[in-house]
Design a protein that fits this description.
The structure holds two protein chains of two kinds. Chain A is 33% helix and 21% strand. Chain A is an alpha/beta fold. Chain A has a nine-stranded mixed β-sheet, sandwiched between helices. Chain A starts with a helix and ends in a 9-residue tail after the last helix. By secondary structure, chain B is an alpha/beta fold. Helices cover 26% and strands 30% of the residues of chain B. Classes of the chains: A alpha/beta, B alpha/beta. Chains A and B meet through helix 12 of A and helix 1, helix 2 and strand 8 of B. Chain B: Keywords: Cell shape, Cell wall biogenesis/degradation, Glutamine amidotransferase, Hydrolase, Ligase, Peptidoglycan synthesis. Chain B: This is Lipid II isoglutaminyl synthase (glutamine-hydrolyzing) subunit GatD. Chain B: GO terms for molecular function: carbon-nitrogen ligase activity on lipid II; glutaminase activity. Chain B: Belongs to the CobB/CobQ family. GatD subfamily.
């Protein structure tokens, strides 16, 4: 390592120590300082680690967390970035604050779609893991095709890296790339001819521009697609879920390559994340029994949902940020056999997406089929979400723009189970309040 | 059972739905219910015929460049139908891409000129490295009503013969960022760059569309109650 890099790394490390010890936070500023002193610092880390990049719209965090757990069954040094630090500065902070590996380590990093090319211009990864591409905060990212193009810009710099891609996402089957590709997906049922609901993205065959049909749809536009017009179809899957078991809001069981697995998190979409971690694990030589052990070890995986006890109310806080993710969460909470209350907190800051119209693609109508005892709305844009719920047919809504009153009112809800869906900055604000009041430990990585 | 029944054509609803355009259908159904009406929705997509006599309301949403291009190639097949629908005085709501495609042409992201239907007299140019993004408020000069929305567009649209703006920009950018106009009204066609669920925040426009459809379909009926319907702000 050059003197300049060493000094930059030292400065970054020191600022991280200072921020964490005295300021209780800071995962991006140390990276910023380090980059200022040595813009090429990432290059020096390439010698110390083999890198895996996890990217896509939804599921990056959980796929990364599960992958790390799987890979730790075999590798002693696995480095990863904390939740949310998936931009360049956060990634640099991750490297400079890690203990120095004894031999070459493995780094599994969640990387924001627009930052893939920035990272691969310094470090050539051994593998990319692609989760999916959905429309997400369009005021920031643009359209799904441009998002995928941003990722490809990074991939083109690493033509030898293996791509481990969701085979059920048709966008990942539109380019002829020189890279070896491993596909994972779902094969648990087969129909002759299905059509996706009209309000689904990316329905067109990329080859002949006719509407795609399906043999199986898991959610949104994902599944075993085919084009009856030109023959374009899903590629052969290397790893597939062949059977679904019991799905609850807190766990899922499923069969994969003939073996049953269980993960301690609900939601069909999280099975895709487990599947991606499985495919990566197999690619890097982790055995099936090791993966099973990794999935089923007791420790809860912190994805974008957590359970908090608020004065006896079992409160599940879930981040929602785009329509596909939102609909998956609505599907998941429906599997709760207990009665529950439903809270939605909506902000429209830059990190939430300043356009709130995505809530209209959420299928809130289905909530009215359930015995939901009480609804509550909050956040800076509570009026938007209140209108959405009202037009879905909900008539009893407590409106609490201030999050502090939301917290107080949770105690008054008539059920023991409470689901709080919240946009990004609303999650941060609520967690801060919860920490101040001692319900959870402080800070958010 | 509701007393009145309306049929809505969601033009290319499976391709032009990028900005939660479905919210407009939800809002129309919500207010229609208060007018004792229900709405049946049918998506009319590429390779399918659009029969104007089958429908009372039409919706033409916005999409991504790729899908819009595909739609533009299919549009000539539906031109006669859409033209008749509009000339019959039936209400059509066109948002963003749909708005652009009703005009003569629009210029795509790569500078190519993409033909529209040419049933309305506007045209759309594109900007380099700039989009109009953010909250927008406009005022309709005939009614004095204020409309609130969110715009996110690269296109700059210039109105032509017979078109008047949906509103005058109070804050935001509007059609082109130059002449202070936003959207367009022509007969019972309402066009706007408000993304995408414009009617969820602007129930007064939903009311206009529904009344136009009801009066057209049931010329002898008395809709004075529906006309008196008061819509509270939702924003």
């Amino acid at each position: 390592m050059s003197l300049k890099s060493s000094f930059a790394e030292f400065a970054g490390r020191s600022s991280y120590w200072f921020l964490h010890t005295f300021m209780h936070g800071g995962s991006s500023l140390p990276g910023k300082i380090t980059l200022k002193l040595d813009p090429d610092i990432l290059q020096s880390f390439a010698k110390k680690y083999d890198l895996v990049i996890v990217t896509g719209t939804n599921g990056k965090t959980l796929t990364t967390a599960l992958s790390v757990r799987v890979l730790r069954e075999k590798y002693s040094d696995v480095l990863t970035n904390p939740t949310g630090s998936n931009m360049k500065q956060g990634i640099v902070t991750t490297f400079i604050t890690a203990p120095k590996p004894k031999q070459k380590g493995l780094a599994v990093l969640e990387v924001d779609e627009a930052n893939v090319a920035i990272v691969t211009s310094y470090i050539t990864p051994v593998a990319f893991v692609f989760t999916n591409i959905f429309r997400d905060q369009m005021d920031r990212y643009g359209e799904i095709y441009t998002t995928y193009e941003k990722i490809l810009k990074g991939v083109r710099m690493a033509p030898k890296a293996t791509i481990i891609a969701n085979g059920d996402e048709q966008l990942f089957n539109t380019q002829n790339l020189p890279n070896p590709v491993i596909y994972y997906g779902f094969n648990h049922e087969h129909h002759d001819d299905l059509r996706a609901p009209a309000n689904t993205d990316g329905l067109l065959c990329p080859k002949c521009q006719h509407i795609l049909h399906y043999h199986l749809i898991t959610y949104a536009g994902l599944g075993d697609y085919f084009c009856p017009h030109c023959g374009f179809k899903r590629p052969k899957l290397d790893y597939a879920v062949t059977k679904l078991g019991k799905l609850t809001p807190t766990s899922s069981t499923f069969e994969l390559d003939g073996q049953e697995y269980r993960i301690e998190i609900g939601g069909l979409y999280n099975i895709y994340n487990a599947l991606a971690a499985y495919a990566l694990g197999r690619f890097l030589g982790v055995s099936q029994s090791q993966i099973k052990h990794a999935f089923e070890s007791d420790e809860r995986v912190f994805g974008r949902q957590e359970e908090i006890n608020i004065d006896g109310k079992k409160t599940t806080l879930i981040l929602v940020k785009n329509p596909v993710g939102l609909n998956q969460v609505l599907d998941m909470i429906e599997t709760d056999p207990e009665p529950f209350s439903f809270v939605f907190l909506l902000n429209a800051n830059y990190a939430d997406g300043i356009d709130t119209s995505w809530i209209w693609d959420g299928d809130f109508e289905k909530l009215t089929q359930h015995d939901i005892k009480q609804y509550m709305t909050g956040g800076e844009r509570y009026k938007d979400i209140t209108t959405r719920l009202t037009m879905a047919g909900v008539d009893k809504i407590w409106k609490e723009p201030e999050l502090a009153s939301v917290l107080t009112k949770i105690k008054d809800l008539p059920t023991d189970h409470v689901y709080v869906l919240a946009s990004y900055t609303a999650v941060l604000q609520l967690r801060k309040l919860l920490a101040e009041k001692g319900y959870i430990k402080g800070g958010m990585d | 059972m509701t007393k009145y029944h309306l049929n809505l054509a969601h033009l290319y609803g499976d391709l032009l739905n990028t900005y939660s355009d479905v919210g407009n259908i939800i809002a129309l159904r919500y207010y229609a219910k208060q007018m004792d009406a229900d709405i049946a929705v049918k998506v009319v997509s590429i390779d399918e015929e659009f029969n104007p006599d089958e429908f009372d309301i039409a919706l033409f949403g916005g999409g991504q460049d790729y899908e819009q291009l595909v739609v533009s190639k299919d549009l000539p097949n539906k031109k006669a139908g859409i033209e008749k629908f509009i000339n019959d005085g039936k209400p059509l709501l066109a948002i963003c891409g749909g708005y652009q495609l009703l005009g003569h042409y629009y210029v795509g992201a790569n500078g190519e000129k993409i033909p529209g239907l040419g049933v309305l007299d506007h045209y759309t140019l594109s900007q380099d490295h700039n989009r109009f993004i953010g909250d927008i408020t406009i005022k309709n000069e005939e009614t004095g009503q204020e409309y609130h929305g969110f715009e996110n567009h690269n296109g700059k649209t210039y109105l032509g013969k017979g078109e008047r703006p949906l509103g005058k920009v109070v804050s935001g950018h509007g059609n082109n960022g130059e002449d202070g106009s936003e959207g367009a009204i022509y007969k019972n066609v309402y066009c706007s760059y408000f993304h995408g669920p414009i009617l969820t925040r602007n129930g007064e426009i939903a009311k206009k569309i529904l009344l136009a459809a009801l009066h057209h379909k049931y010329p002898a009926a008395d809709f004075s109650q529906a006309e008196a319907l008061e819509i509270k702000p939702t924003f």
